[in-house]
């Protein structure tokens, strides 16, 4: 397919939720774009380095000149912004606001990033790992749904995954730091 064919494909599918590229939903395109932006921010900028430093050892980061309090407040503000955007998207998609629509999403996010390799103690992880963890989590969630597993058992499954992730995180942290 020549360059004009690719451009025509992009131009054709941009209306009302249609795929940008035939066969790929717009949600996937946005997710990949956000993963790339997040990866570049965390690995190629000073602020990304500050985020890792503030999450790993706040006192050492503070002694190195990192404005830890400002970084943490900025990250909390960004988290609140993301939650607001998510809520607005949910309201636009469903046409109403449901108080239980975001129930356990923070729990699922923690599980996804831990599956992706981030340490619960902070200072180690990657956006690509978190994205792969979210993909794995989503595939398992859909598999359980299609297998007919009850929703209450899915919550138990989430708890087991988180418990396993905490144990694995502790083990990995001890290996990395050389603790016994």
What is the first-to-last residue Cα distance?
58 Å
Radius of gyration: 20 Å
Task: Label the overall shape.
Answer: globular
- The portion of residues assigned to helices is over 70%
Spans of at least 5 consecutive residues with low confidence: none
Main beta-sheet annotation: none
How many helix segments?
8
Measured by DSSP, the beta-strand proportion falls in: under 5%
Structural class by SSE content? mainly alpha
Looking at the chains present, what oligomeric state does this protein adopt?
single chain
Characterization of this structure:
- This protein is mainly α.
- The chain has a domain at 104-180.
- It is built from eight helices and no strands.
- The chain has helices at residues 3-12, 26-44, 46-56, 58-63, 68-94, 105-115, 127-146, 151-177.
- The protein is globular and about 50 Å long.
- The N and C termini lie far apart (58 Å).
- The model has no long low-confidence stretch (mean pLDDT 81).
Summarize the topology:
Elements: H1 3-12, H2 26-44, H3 46-56, H4 58-63, H5 68-94, H6 105-115, H7 127-146, H8 151-177
Helix pairs in contact: 2-3, 3-5, 6-7, 6-8
Q: Which properties best describe this structure?
A:
180 residues, 8 helices
Briefly say what this structure is.
The protein has 180 residues and is mainly alpha-helical. The chain has helices spanning 3-12, 26-44, 46-56, 58-63, 68-94, 105-115, 127-146, 151-177.
């Amino acid at each position: 397919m020549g360059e004009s064919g690719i451009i025509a494909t992009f131009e054709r599918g941009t209306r009302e939720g249609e795929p940008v590229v035939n066969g790929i939903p717009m949600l996937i395109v946005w997710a990949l774009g956000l993963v790339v932006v997040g990866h570049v921010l965390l690995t190629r900028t000073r602020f990304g380095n500050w985020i890792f430093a503030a999450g790993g050892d706040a006192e050492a980061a503070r002694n190195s000149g990192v404005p830890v309090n400002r970084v943490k407040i900025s990250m909390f503000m960004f988290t609140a912004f993301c939650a607001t955007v998510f809520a607005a998207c949910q309201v636009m998609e469903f046409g109403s606001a449901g108080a239980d629509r975001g129930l356990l999403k923070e729990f699922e996010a923690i599980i996804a990033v831990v599956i992706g390799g981030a340490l619960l103690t902070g200072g180690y992880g990657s956006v690509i790992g978190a994205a792969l963890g979210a993909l794995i989590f989503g595939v398992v969630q859909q598999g359980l749904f299609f297998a007919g597993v009850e929703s209450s058992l899915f919550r138990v499954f989430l708890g087991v995954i988180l418990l396993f992730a905490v144990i694995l995180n502790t083990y990995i942290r001890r290996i990395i730091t050389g603790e016994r």
